[in-house]
Amino acid sequence: MDRDCRFSHVRIIETSDARTIVHWRYALVDSYYNFAAMGDDGRGEWCDEFYVTYPDGTGVRKMVLHYTKPLRKHDWNEAIVVLPPGIRPEDVINSPEVFLGNMQGQEHGYTWDDDLPAVLEEPAGANIEVINLKAKYRPFLILPPGPFTAPEWKMNRPSPLFRTYCAKQAKGWRPDPVPSVYGWWDHWPIAQVPGDGRWVLDADRASSFVLTALHTWQHYELTERTKTRIMLQGITDKGPKGLVPLARSWVNAPKLVLKSGDYQSLGYDKAQRAYVLACENPSQPTPLEFELAANEKSPIVNLAVVVKGWGRTDPAVRTNGQDISSPEAFRFGHASTLEQENLILWIELESTEPLRVCVYPQR
Question: Which fold has domain 252-361?
């Protein structure tokens, strides 16, 4: 818990009208700044996080953990709400507090006033979570569905794990009585006192409360030194059922078929939420045409495209033969690398029908 940000660094590595990428590197340290697993190889454990965010308020969180022991337990994600002084959890959260949903559109709400289970198993195969804040737009996350094995937890599950936390579950670790049904602390995010948990007695300072924790799901990549997981996250005015098209567009992205010969398709990159193509004549772009085989199970929900080697030429776009001229519906940017200039496109549209796209250079 690096309160002083001694081993934490944030940088913007890409920003344009089309998207922003933020990189956050930090060390895994405790409240006394002792590194996790320092005794194993003298380096401790570190994490690189990448946040790829698009104009629709949705983006990918990519977490690359540099680990020392393959069986060491880690908490990859928690749903935490941060509060200013004078505000209680009940002031900002509705009931049910959390909704879970699956790719079939089934959903279930969980209430913290009930006998809350430690592990949330409904609906079966849940991979979508919405935090029911008292706001028009509420935070959500979408995890890759499907089975996974987590040896460090001795866990073998058919779908992602969502685990709750509340005051009842902390008996023996909390004051009695407690001022709230939630797991409510004020040791984070402002207080500088060393410690991994200090329960709130009154709302007299900045505090936080956790709803779900220890999210566990399948790895995106796994090497001898790194574990990588990805998730889709953002804000929404929909429930889990309304997020199914977005989830399907990311998990089961429509197949891209090239219709022009001067480009190479590098596939759909879930870690960018984007199709990646390469220009075979760098900085000399010709019209790029492709078709997306969208359908109900593989829809398009706001299209992102990266064209490597396009150059600095501004693009124009047609979809199904119609020009897109609205600055709100079509945004682009250029990203420089050591080798080339890449084009980033974002097009606001939804479709369950095949879509033909033409990207051509403005002269």
Answer: Immunoglobulin-like (2.60.40)
